[in-house]
Fold these 3 entries.
Entry 1:
Amino acid sequence: MVLDVLNKGFNAVTSSFSEFQGSGLIFILFLISIIFIAFGKREKNIKDMFVKYPVYVLIVFFAPIWYVYIYYFSDYEILYRILWLLPIGVTVCYVLIEVIYKLPEKFRTVGFVAAILLLVISGEYTYSNEYFSLAENEYHIPQIVVDICDETEVEGREIRIAVPDELLSYVRQYTNAIWLPYGRETLMGLGSGDSLLRSLLSEPVIDTRAVVEELRHYETPYLIVRDDTKFTESLADYDYVYVTSYDNYDMYMDNDTYYGIDDIDYR
Amino acid sequence: MSIIKIILICIIIYSAAYILGRGLFPALKDKGTGLSLAGGLMVIFASFYVVTLPAVFLQDDENGMNVVMWVYSVLISICLIVSIVLTIMRIVRRKDKIFVAKPMLDTKETIYLALFMGIVLFQLFKAAFYAYADGDDAYYIAVAQALGSGQNSLYVHDPYTGEARGLMTRYALAPFSAWVAYFARLFSVNAATVAHIGMPLSLIPITYVIYNAVGEKLFPDNRTKKYMFLCLIAVFVMFSHYSYNSAEVFLLTRSRQGKEALANIIVPMLFFEILDISGEEEWKISNENLIMIILTCISSALTSVFGNVLVLIMLFFNFVYSFVRKAKWKERIKAAVPAVVNLFVLFLYAIK
């Protein structure tokens, strides 16, 4: 039991640390900077805040108390946040400036440029991240989600819609008037997130009868699917009529549902 | 029209933060240029938490968020009036000046400052015009959207589906999304716009204000060094994607989430406070420092439940450090007192 706690905890903490440090170059710079301050600076408070404090944070991070927490709660994904307490950027940049100022004055500009290059090489450009893209609108939400929500929204009442996984996270960021039959927990496979509807919609060929039953069970009059989605039977056979298309998505609507308005725009 | 409102929200956050910081904590402006902004933001955060926490637990489905809107607006207005009166009184008594003249920048300083400003403006441009897809937004912004567009019950509706499902304690104890919703509702702007554009434009510069104050502590007599330091920090931030989880990545990608404010405002602010205290010959916590630390601790609770743990780790260091520096017992007690706030929040989390 104790060994199990130690083993699981140690593995979780070390993998969390390893993920956080990435390639490790920044951490090497950070370590060198701490050593520089420890042996190269005289000011007591600087030494304390940039040497003793980071060492203390690392001791806390690797402390066995977290092992017990991890063992019982299986929740170690947030442990990396303890490492936010390390003043990595401030320490590294402070030491770089100190080193630059040890150079003769005429070389300081060169030293500054070299310091920038060192940071660029050691790190990775944040904006090269694949999740960045030019915003399509003021909401920073895919325009297709905005269009779908605007189409389905009915003033004065909530309407539930089922959307493909890739749109799911955005719908309720844009509007509170649209509800969903299942949420992101389902996509992530967390806790109470099981959903038969989502399982059915994830099949290569969707069982029309079963899906329609589930949609009606969840009182979900709108179904949005990719236009290449295959069904066992036509949705129209179950009174789900085609409304319109947005790019690669088709929208269907349940004719049996009362919407509270009489001017649904059939196309 | 939304964009004009977003600019207005940013102006209001900056103005309110500056007035509060300048009025209630006059020593801050001497510790770091613009640090009044960060100090004022702590007042803004902490007062929102103090107002929202009871509302969350009272569970008034009819009026919850409405009450928060009114009480918070009145509380902040009173704080602003008091701050303005205090500032005017100090100016009249010649204990303060409207503008404090500083020596002109020389050529080197101007170049480094311009470079730093250029990098920060680039980051703000990216934040305003580029979207970053983050899965956690599905929760946080959906909460802000619901509260911002008229829902009054706080943290009982599942933000993913819209269904009521009982109090979600972990999130209810850190209602940063409700703070975003406050502005969305006050200005009738879509919460997604406030979160994705308004928040980064308001919060990213305040992080740099704190870095600037740290720079002034590290290089008190050399502005060129300080501006060079800020340039390097800004570059470091931009190239911090060595890890998906680094604090600086959160700054540039998730400024609408409480976690970002925790990593890039609360933690640096508390670090600055501890650094500030440690710089004194005799280790002691002034009353102004103590109040600022307490406000920072309350603010940490607004941003994330785990923020309480992080702040406690920092406070424990400060407490132990007071022994290393052979501080008087009164000062040691002062170092420990702010922990009560975060221990109380964690206690609530444990029993709920």
Entry 2:
Amino acid sequence: MSSLRRSTRALIALFALGWTLVLAAADRDYGLAPVRIADDTWVLVGRSEDFSFANGGNIVNTAFIVTSAGVVVIDSGPSRSYGEQLKRAIARITDRPVSLVLNTHHHPDHFLGNQAFAIETLAALPATIKGIHSEGGSFNENMYRLAGDWMAGTEPVAPARQLAPGPLTMGNHRLELMALDGHTDADLVIFDRSTGVLFAGDLVFNGRAPTTPHANLQAWQAALDQLAEAPFATVVPGHGPVATDTAPIRQTRAWLAWLDRNLRQAAEDGLDMTEVLALPIPAEFRGLAVVDAEYRRSVGQLYPAYEQRALSAERRKP
Amino acid sequence: MIKSALLAMLLACTCSTGVAAAERGADPLESPRWADMRKEMFPASARVVFDDKVKVTAPLTAENAMNVPVSVDASALQDVREVLVFADFNPIVRVVRFEPTGAQPSLGFRIKLQQSTPVRAAVRTGNGNWHVGGTWVNTAGGGCTLPSTGSASPEWQKRLGEVSSRVWPRKEGGERIRLRIIHPIDTGLAAGIPAFFLQDLQLTDDKGKALMHIEGFEPIAENPVFTVDVPAARATAAYRVSGRDNNGNAIAAVIEK
């Protein structure tokens, strides 16, 4: 009898402990604080870090525009919990419903908050949707490994609505959707002609070394040249602080151009990958956040292709 | 005077602790697997010492466990006969073994890792002693139990064993050969995909005289790239590579300049 009571008590204790853990996970607070950068326009600036258990994946910038036709959200963040907290942050500012959630590209920190929003509001470029379907699951698993508890309950959700480039009027805001590529196969840029805000997604990094797991360095630089021409007043990068000039565009482009030159030269000089990793990073980039880690990752991701070109037989044909 | 005496004392101390540590078998990488490695890789009677002259270069953190770059350089040692590269915590510990019979005792390659592990090179010199160097590589891993990209694509079947290569003059003298071989290299640890890997590669000069023999094991990365340096005395107009995988598929190519 007493032993039965003991085991019952133990079970209750375990149950309570389980719930405490679940609630603790659910309670993790990203401390999202929207900053107003233009009329109707707010940005939530993430940390210039790598994914970690400490930041819960909040290394990304998300944004929203409160239009007369509802709220337009630009990127949903790295987890279900982030998406839910983003929704609450929006609700503190406006009682208008979220009518459109745009995923700028298929990297996990830009779409894993999708679960928090109504499925019919989600939209992205066709190749982004395809990327979420094919890689979303492994990205999500990887995020659990990198950010732990913060990811509790997160599942990848792909938008159904496919976007095409061109004008998109959302109430009193005249948006221009640009379908570019280079950071990934499909990089959506949103230019709000009504406020002059350019939401550049991860084509633009500011003060942080760019990530390149799906990069095409040539296409990316061409996309940046196009963005530099846009008549914007404010640029919201995918990572790093908001700016009012082309400096982040030029900085990102300079890094990519250096990376491309450096890797090509290294391959032409016959360097082994370990020797490429040991090459010095020029002084102008030393100040970028996580520059050493991103350089290391970029060499791993990109050098084999340069190497292959330098070794291929076609190269020696006249 | 006092300074030099101090220096001598200091040197004596460093040397004696160095030897003592080696004899005790204290692993500078402090791997719990070292005792097993000692037993498994070397005869009980062999003299095995940890030696900084054996340089193993690899990134401290490797994001892509399928393709971790490693360079081994034992050129600070004299009379190198063979080099065995192994990773303590890999499910298949042995990575590659090479005999630099004319080339420099160094090799660049890439490997698959299953988890964070020391990556070591054990170098046997002419007197039979083994010199061990190494470095830790941190990785989320999984590289050994994933199927190769090639196993899911028909391309490698058409191009299996294809070699692309290039030779560079080195500013230190001599030449550098880099070569890439199309091969899926499956470890046999991914469900339903048998082990399939490069087992034997001979690098020779244009007269067929041996420069390096490479014995590969399962953890070498897919479509492997090797970097080999040849001293000026052994540089020739062209080189040859020949060998086979564990299924008997032949590899043969001339490495032209």
Entry 3:
Amino acid sequence: MTTITPRPPRVSEVTLSAAAQAASRYEKLKAEPMEVAGQPTGAFTGFFGTIRDVIAHGRLLDLLIRRDLKSRYKDSALGFLWTLIRPITQLAIYYVILGNILGAARGIDNFAVYVFCGLTVYNLFSDIVAGSTGSIVANAGLIKKVYVPREIYPLASVGSALFNFGIQLVVLLIATVVFGEFPAHLDLLYFFPSALLILIYGLALGLLLSAANVFLRDMGYLVEIVLMLLMWASPIVYAWSTVATRLTGSREWLLHIYTDNPITLAVLGFHRAFWLGGAENDYPADMLLKMGVAGVIGLVLVYVFHRVFSRLQGNFAQEL
Amino acid sequence: MSIDTTSSRPASRTPASADHPTVVTIENVSKKFVIRKDNSLKERIVTLGRTGRRNSEEFWALKNVNLTIPAGSTIGLLGPNGSGKSTLLKAIGGIIEPTTGSIKRRGRLAALLELGAGFHPDLTGRENVFLNSAILGMSREETEAKFDDILNFAGIGDFIETQVKFYSSGMYVRLAFAVAIHTDPDVLLVDEVLAVGDEAFQRKCMDKIHEFQEQGRTIILVSHSLGQVQELCDRAVVLAKGEVQFEGSAREAVKNFRDILEDRRVAEATAQGEAKAEITPGKVLSGTVRAEGRAEGEDFRPGDNLIVTMEYSHETPLDRWNAGFKIENNLGQPVYGTSSKFLGITMPPMRGTATVEFRLENVQFGGGAFFLHAFFAEPAGPHIAIKREAARFVMADDPDGEGTVRVSSSMRQIAG
């Protein structure tokens, strides 16, 4: 039996190859399974299906990150230098005004490196969260027109935040040499759990907030404020031990909240890795264990917030 | 070169056979939209709870839609504005999720929805081509291999290195279309974008779509151009208020759709007529068109003699006046018109009412719907009263040609 083409050939245009092409296309299609259009659903298959989907779109993710970075500094004369100028200015302000004029540097050796450690890791967190919160709304044009797994947009923000983080890390390493000595010690390995912790929590919050921002545009502003507060709620420009000595006795539970939150842990981890001025009592006990617990909780949050995200994403296109 | 004289018009196309695999199945799909009037946190909190529900409205953009689309077919989606065509297309594309029901599909899909299918304004055309082709699932090598073809097809020349925010809307669409068709899609969704390019580009798109059809690709098309639907599609679906009103051959669907539009027009005209109080003393009471020897509601055929009858009234005595009418096609282009003035007839003075009849012999209009505007006028020209779209009639489609007039043509080969 021969395959019937869907319509009689049009005037003189048709060639045998077109008909053959059609036939082979039908064969190929027959072999493919029917799939549900859009996002895979289901509590378990949905999560891992999405991961598979995102990996399949790896090249797109790469391009989106590049686009993010490229378009951010497009038409600006200094371009990528701005990624350096902002944290260095921040550093200068904190170092000069807070450290030397207001005296926060007293009792903290090598205050410049200390501040920059905290800033680097905190900027990673705030870039991820602020970037992903706006990511869905910023990509409205794409979301309304093509289907790709929507997780890709917050992930692209994570990617471009990581790029900036990489640059700042280089500055930080140079700074350690300029202001003192290179931190060539075993504690340098604290870098990995700290960065990982920020990544996990940044991703979890990013997923939740990016989806929430579609329905409530106030999120973006709210996030800005909260990020500002959080910065002062972590030992970035002051020492953890200062807080530890004040919050004792009946207020010790406050210290636990203060210490055991992932941002504080990551900042402390960074101090431990890159800042050589710290003594053992500058850090809480069992830091690695605390980081591990926070990490596991973070992973659960990623899963839960992703479920929320995938529930909400079906309505993105019409809300934007 | 031989010319296939049997026409390959859509009307004679065989429907896709059962041999073709299904590419899209739509089962009981409904989509609910909630329209909220409060969008900020403050308003949301203030109107929390019961009052909050009053601030939102629900409406169903799609209701229980069932469709099966076989590979290799070209389906047109027709319907008045707001009937759910674009929503259905977006649901097929996976861009919005149906509230209930499921949509399953297979094969590679490319969608051309609205303008610019996801370009980033700050990137150059070239960067956007790569970004867009990645979205549509092409690898870098594939894109590079096809880049020249894409550029050629889009025909935007050196603008490829310019940021797309400086593009004209036509250039936008050309580039988007060029990328979409070079991704080797099995299913192509097209939403009313072809209307943006200039004529030469539209022609190019049409040719490409014909080529796609021969290659067994499936095309789902939303268009308001009924001619385009008739030309391209072998099947069409008429949607009205989110429900499938009709599904069948493109030709019948177009006819069905015209009827829906007609019903709406009549409803709107009645509503308007009631609202507007008459001030002028003159009135066109009625205007009708019938063809000799044809029953009411039957399509007119070429060669028919048409009888146009019009009834007028004037409250004050009218000594000198002219009666006339105009016929327009459904695009509003004038097709024919005449009046007693043209015909050199002096109307007797009107006392109260008057009825006139025009006889149009051997009418050779092209296929489609036509509208009669009945009027009467002062001798100098200004209308005393006009009744727009007083009557509507449909000419049977012309199997041998297209356009607003019908001509009997023949052809032969004279060389080669």
